[in-house]
Amino acid sequence: MGWIERQSRLIVLAAALLAQAAFAAQSFPPSISLPDGWGPEGIVAGRGPVIYSGSLVDGAIYAADARTGRGQVLVPGQVGRVAVGLAFDRRSNYLFAAGGPTGGASVYDAATGAHIATFQFTSGPRFINDVVVTRSAAYFTNSSAPVLYRLALGQGGSVSPATPVETIPLSGDYKQVPGFNANGIVATADGAALIVVHSALGVLYRVDPATGVATLIDLDGASLSNGDGMLLEGHTLYVVRNRLNRIEVIDLEPDLSAGTVVETITSPEFDVPTTITRVGRALYVVNARFGTPPTPDTEYSIIRVEED
Q: Would you tell me how many other CB atoms lie within 10 Å of the CB of residue 141?
């Protein structure tokens, strides 16, 4: 094979690869429709292209394929159940759903939708808002009380319905005020620290998962009011500010002592986005549409966000 022929084949191959990549990017729909009347709040990515969204109406969970936009109800709804924030544990393939005003949380098999366990945390002031899973435990926020709840996990992320739940008081710099308090929660990759956003005060805390001692993260005066769901990737933190229809991108110091807002993501497609996840190179947020009166016919969707 001559040099010219080899170069021609390389050019053809490169063009084919570029075309394939362009097609793959275009093949992902810009939005994913949820069932009418769904009332979403939480979203999380599972294995491969699967995205899960929970329902505030009855605790149902919907599973969608980000490649096609098609999906189905994985966990049927039940009267008295609520699904707010969601977390996914890749080891066990379990979904964790914060239960909002129920004061508890539920765990499901992400493949079959089978119910694994339900835990009751409190009957006092309660709105169990969000959840994050580390190698050793699942941690839940309560927007109505200055505490976290810790659910210990077994080997491989196993969950036992008999596992006692630990209540961890939030202390240190943490302040409880009227309104929604602790909301979104994420964990560092090693599980050594948690980050919690305070919706009413618009601040971030670094929280010791063992003691609950909270240390204010210096944002140089930047506000995260209406802070809701978050996504942590290395030292980059994405914070959804629901009713403000924006996502703040924060560059955190390695020790989590401070952070700088480096970008604000907005979109005309945002309609009170609440939580955020990633599939491949794109971010996804779910539109809770809290400004729209909910009816059985109200339309809801998940929005794909391409980064620059």
A: 29
